[in-house]
Amino acid sequence: GFSVSIYNVTSQSIYLRWPKFSGASSYRVTATAVNTVGHSLLARFSDVTLKGTLTSLIPNTIYAIQAEAIDKNGIILAETQIMQSTAPDIPVIDKAYSKLSNSITVEWRAVPGATSYLLTAQDGDSFIETVSLVIVVSVYSFQIWPFQTALLKNKKLKWCSFSTVLAAPILSVSSPSCDSIAVSWKAVYMAAGFSVSLMRSDGLGRMLKENTTNTSLIFTNLDPGTLYTIKAYAWSVNGIPGDDFTYNQRTSPNAPADVQVAFNSGALRAIVSWMPTEGALTYSVTASSGLLKLKCNTSSASCMVPSLQCSSEYYVSVTAYNDAGSSNPTDAVSLKTIPCAPVNISIEEDEPGHLLVSWPSVNFGHYYVVFVKSDDGLEVHCNTSHTQCHFQSDCGFTYFISVFAYNKAGQSPLGDVLNYSTAPCCPSDFRAVLVASDTVEVTWAPVRGAEMYETRALGGSGVVRCNDTATACTLSALPCNARYNITVYSFSEARGSNTSCASKYVATAPCSPEIKSISKEALSAISVHWQSNNEEATYIVTARGEAGLWHCTSSGNSCTLIHLPCGSAFSVSAIARSPAGQSLPSYSVPLETAPCCPNDLILTQVTQSVTNISWSVGMGAQTYVTTLESPKGQAKCHTLQNYCLLGCITCGTNYTVSLKAISETGLTSSCTYQGYSSSACCPSGVKLYRLGNNGIRVYWRASDEMINYNTDLHGSKGNFTCTPTSGLSHCDITEIPCGDVYTVVVSPVTHKGPNLTFCPKKIYS
After folding, report:
1. How far is CA 99 from the centre of its chain?
2. Which segments within 49-154 are labelled E, that is strand?
3. Which one has a higher pLDDT value, 119 or 601?
4. Residues paired with residue 483 on neighbouring β-strands, in sequence order
5. Rounded (5°) CA angle 274-278-283
6. What pLDDT is recorded for position 150?
7. What is the DSSP string of 142-209?
8. CB contact at 8 A, 169 and 233
């Protein structure tokens, strides 16, 4: 727990301290040189002394130092040992002198063990210390302390004294202009005057020298931008020159020459170039326009000035710089930039097909070019020195319009590209066709620029509209017999409706006629009456039935259907027809013609008082009434059949024959036929007389003397006939085969057809 520390070392002394040790009455310190034989030092200290100094030591020597704590009986209580070297020996100054006013040169012999030296200069009461450095003083006493690594100081000092030369003047140099240099300095202590010389640093030219008692002067007529060397010193009253001060100064450059400005219109920037000037290190270009100043700095002979404004005039100057200062600016060069893009462009379609593009004038714009490009790719342009241009335009196009201003600098930047859509084209070739009596179908070809169409029909009871994107429109439920003014308008989102479209007149079909009555004019002629409410209409009446079609035409309110077939049912309707079209048919009215008279009627006398009448079927007839009428009386029958037996017929009488054909609805056709004569009356009182074996005489009583009779004899062996001369009432038949049974009939002679078979018969054997 006992230790010793060293707090100072010199060349011949070591200073120690230790803490108080309990029980110790004294302390003993022994220093033994490590590398030197027989040199040691012993020192004793009381118990109240806690520090000690070992002196008379050898400089630059390592000592082993042992410290012991001893009690009052001489017994060593504790001990410790450390190693310590003494400082180097004190150096001896051989020479000290001053060549410059701000330095002292000191020379001494090296001291063994020293690693550095501390020099101290004293000027009155002030000290300046440095380690192996030169000290700036005037009249000084100085001392030197050697240093070892251990930094042990020795307080035994060696001193000497001397005086320095005049200090050099500290120059302040500037170049106020490109051909002058101004030199100034502060007064130097003890100086009687100053000498200043100036010469080009490259050795060219002559040297300029000035002596003065002032503290400033100016050298003029120098070369611009040239580096000069200035040397100055002060001299004493004895004429002894002091330290000199050397300074290199360049004159400020001359203004650059041949300034050229090249304007880049596309990038709105200018390239400024000039001839390099001697001695210039950098250049500054200034472009001024009003309060706006743009600068660019460069070390080359050109510079780009960016971000120029359009429609502006800039004044461009160049200034050269070096470390001495700046040149005067060059004479300003005027630069007019390209004009700005025209704004507030207005587009008007003063009349269809003509576009007027106008704009306000632009500063520095000498003329303008307007480009108009349609959406089909076609582009036209207009050059003008005015502020408006006229263009031809077509309907349904979108035009993209840009306006450029021009001057000598070039073209303005691209401004707003405006688009203007003209009104869509009108469907000029539309067709309006009446597809029904109250329906008009309007069709047209698509037109350029149209997004929607409106078909408008004006007339009749008002306005009918139809909007659609298709190129067709159907106007329905239109009043009949009306005249409409039809227009097809095209519409676009951008321009709205084209209101200049042409119209067409279309008339609807006539109204349907209303049949009021049908009357019978003749057997096969029917008169049809209707109510007429149309103008310029022709009416066609049609009777339609299984038998076919029958027509009649009139521009009035009635017409007659002729040659209608009998016994037929018809549906009668009427239509009105005009150049506009055809109406719907009227409501049908049923029509039935009277039944047809039978074409063939046959009368056959069955007996002398009964006649059979038969006839062909009459078209449309359901029942028939036949009548045989003579002055002697009438015979009639009503039947559903096509034949009838009429009795009570008087023989040998002429009858008129009539027939009525009656339809189901009661229509009657009276049919008249050729008269009918009943056969002559059969003779009465027929008697037979034999004339031998092979002959017979037949007698009768004639009903009329004018009637001739035939006698017919029929048997199995032959038939025989006898016709007597007119007026006779008997007849002989001879050469009759015998042995047979014969039937004998006497009947009136007829002029047509076979003999009558209904007269009475006689049997003869």
Report:
1. 91
2. 51-54, 62-70, 76-85, 93-97, 105-108, 116-123, 126-131, 139-147
3. 601
4. 507
5. 50
6. 41
7. EEEEEE-TT---------EEEEPPPPPP-EEEEEEETTEEEEEE---TT--EEEEEEEETTS-S--EE
8. yes
pTM of the model: 0.51
* Cβ proximity of 286 and 255 under 8 Å: no
| Low-confidence winner among 7-21, 106-120, 141-155 (lowest mean pLDDT) | 141-155
CA distance 51 to 490: 123
Q: Which residue has the tokens 């006398």?
A: 605
Residue 32 has, within 13 A of its CA and on its CB side, a CA count of 9
Arithmetic mean of pLDDT, 91-102: 74
Residue 159: predicted pLDDT: 57
pLDDT single digits (tens) 411-420: 999 999 999 9
The conformation of residue 171, written as its DSSP 8-state character, comes to: E
The C-alpha atoms of residue 702 and residue 503 are separated, in whole angstroms, by 100
The two structure tokens encoding residue 189: 């202590």
- Nearest Cα residue to 394 out of 370, 378, 382: 378
> What are the CA-CA distances from residue 11 to residues 65, 131, 143, 286 (Å)?
16, 18, 16, 73
42-64 residue pLDDT tens: 888 888 888 899 988 888 889 99
Using alpha carbons only, what angle is made at residue 265 by residues 264 and 267, rounded to the nearest 5 degrees? 70
How crowded is the C-beta side of 14, counted as CA atoms within 13 Å? 30
CA dist 347 and 381 (Å) reads 15
Report residue 93 as tokens. 């100054």
Number of Cα atoms under 13 Å in the Cβ half of residue 509: 22
Distance between CA atoms of residues 52 and 726, nearest Å: 226
Would you say residue 126 has pLDDT above 60?
A: yes
The tokens for 7 are: 């707090």
Average pLDDT, the chain: 87
CA nearest to 729, candidates 687, 696, 673:
687
